Amino acid sequence: MSLRDIAFEHQLARRHLKGRIFQVLAFAAICVGLVMLALLFFDVLRDGLGRLSWQFLTSFPSRRPERAGILSPLVGSVLMVTLMGVFAFPVGVGAAIYLEEYAPKNWLTDLIQINVANLAGVPSIIYGLLGLEIFARWLANYTGGRSLLTGSLTMALLILPIVIVSAREAIRAVPNDIRLAALALGATKWQMVRSHVLPYAMPGILTGMILAVSRAIGETAPLITIGALTYVAFLPDSLKSQFTVLPIQIFNWVSRPQAGFHVNAAAGIIVLLAILLSLNALAIYLRHRFEQRLKR
Amino acid sequence: MTVHLMTTTAPTNVTDLENVAVLKAQNVNVYYGTKQALRDVWLYVPEHKITALIGPSGCGKSTLLRCFNRMNDLIPNARVEGEITYRGQNLYDPDIDPVEVRRRIGMVFQKPNPFPKSIYENVAWGARINGYRGDMDELVERALRRAALWDEVKDRLHDNALALSGGQQQRLCIARAIAVEPEVILMDEPASALDPIATLKIEDLMRELKERYTILIVTHNMQQAARVSDYTAMMMLTEDGRAGTVVEFGETEQVFTRPRDPRTEDYITGRFG
């Protein structure tokens, strides 16, 4: 027996066993998530799939569950999310560009960055209270009070920290070489940002944006706070119009005693999930397209 | 200060360069925060010649190079003192716009860094943002020809530049730099990331480019400095080891065969470094 064999106890079998145990545990962890998700999904599909129809998608709410539809919350959700994106995207990306490209590196900037990150963790109902006070009350003359505009602005505030943080990450991932190359050619900072930093960061920015939208489309609390209605038998005809959104309608149906409304709620959830999945698919597609453009 | 006496005034053998120098650094000190990077640097960069900056790592070669196109401005807390002139104009005057400086004094970096765009767009972009009004196709072709890249890429101008080899990418970066018609090109170890064949191509190219441009190159490779440059500046850390300075500057042949400074001789003969 050589010295080499004495000094080491290889215990290969034991080390491999440990590795295998960890692998099984990790597999179990992913199974828990997937199985729960599948159960929920099938439960909802079983309850609601039969109710999905053109009539359901194109009808206003009604006292009778079989005549009720999801038109006004569907349109409300789509409009609210679109407007929210229009508000949050330029402001969020602009703030991210400022923080990453222009802001001096000092304690104040650090403080702002930490606080922006913290804002992403503030409960959404707080944003609802803020929106209620500022947009629905102070600015009622401009927003029309408890309106679509108020809802969109409030939700834009809610997702702003997420948009800023994800856009900053995307901008920071742009190689510094590219910035130096642009500046060394006699580009101004804006020319550099516009032509190189933004296109390079765009896949990441869009991904963050769409994840933020996905979160917002399922939010209920802030909209209830600012007073989105639960029974809306009309479509919004202006920014100052009152509105409702899918999660509020679903919540409303679930809390009704009649079984017919519970079926409606399940069908509503399917619609909401479908929108979420399409948004995520769109995010993946956009990301892929922008990445291809950089590679080609 | 006696140890630095040699470097606090212009070296006597090159005072005749003063009249033909496009770029001059006189008594330059550079600080990063409280740390001094360069001390009492003198350098003359003569027109239509290749001037090489050589010396051990960390002696401030790149720092000195970046003084000439104000790239040090981009580093927070960097401070440049002394006089750096381009055709008699102090580059650090408050009314000098660094953006304009960088158009006239171009730069090629150590690692090839083409934009993730087409070959054509890489060359055209700099000209476009600087307000070029002429025929863009012609300009792109001229720049690529001068960078000895045209024949290799003329059939795929709209392919992504990242598909090129490292040596081709670096020549594209040179084409990109000359497309904005600079007078001086600064090169920061332009061949250090390339294989020997690509390196030789870059060196051949530099010899052609000096007909039109003034070139200042940083290199770790002493053979490269000896092969391509007309003038060589030897940089070293000062005796106290705190900052870099130019210990010797002269015609390349003289610096390599009859160095005046014992430190240059030690370095060139490989006794340290």
Short summary:
The complex is a heterodimer of chains A (296) and B (273). With 296 residues, chain A is an all-alpha fold. Helices cover 76% and strands 0% of the residues of chain A.
Percentage beta strand of chain A: under 5%
Chain-averaged pLDDT of chain B: 89
CATH topology of the largest domain in chain A, anyone? MetI-like fold
CATH superfamily of chain B: P-loop containing nucleotide triphosphate hydrolases
* Strand content range of chain B: 25-35%
Structural class of chain B: alpha/beta
Explain how this protein is built.
The complex is a heterodimer of chains A (296) and B (273). Chain A is globular and about 80 Å long. In chain A, helix 2 (12-48) packs across helix 13 (259-295). Chain A is mostly helical and 296 residues long. The model of chain A has no long low-confidence stretch (mean pLDDT 89). Helix content of chain A is 76%, strand content 0%. The longest helix of chain A is centred in the first third of the chain and has 37 residues, at 12-48. With 273 residues, chain B is of the alpha/beta class. Chain B has a single domain, classed as 3-Layer(aba) Sandwich (Rossmann fold), CATH 3.40.50.300. Chain B has eleven helices and ten strands. In chain B, the strands form two sheets. Chain B has a six-stranded mixed beta sheet, sandwiched between helices. Chain B is globular, with a radius of gyration of 19 Å. Chains A and B meet through helix 9 and helix 10 of A and helix 3, helix 4 and helix 7 of B.
Topology:
The complex is a heterodimer of chains A (296) and B (273).
Chain A: H1 3-7, H2 12-48, H3 54-58, H4 71-102, H5 107-119, H6 124-138, H7 140-143, H8 148-172, H9 176-184, H10 189-217, H11 221-226, H12 246-254, H13 259-295
Helix pairs in contact in A: 2-13, 4-8, 4-10, 4-12, 5-8, 6-8, 8-10, 9-10, 10-13, 12-13
Chain B: H1 5-8, E1 21-32, E2 35-46, E3 50-54, H2 61-67, E4 78-86, E5 89-90, H3 98-104, E6 105-108, H4 119-129, H5 136-146, H6 150-153, H7 166-178, E7 184-188, H8 196-209, E8 214-218, H9 222-228, E9 231-237, E10 244-251, H10 252-257, H11 262-268
Helix pairs in contact in B: 4-5, 4-7, 5-7, 7-8
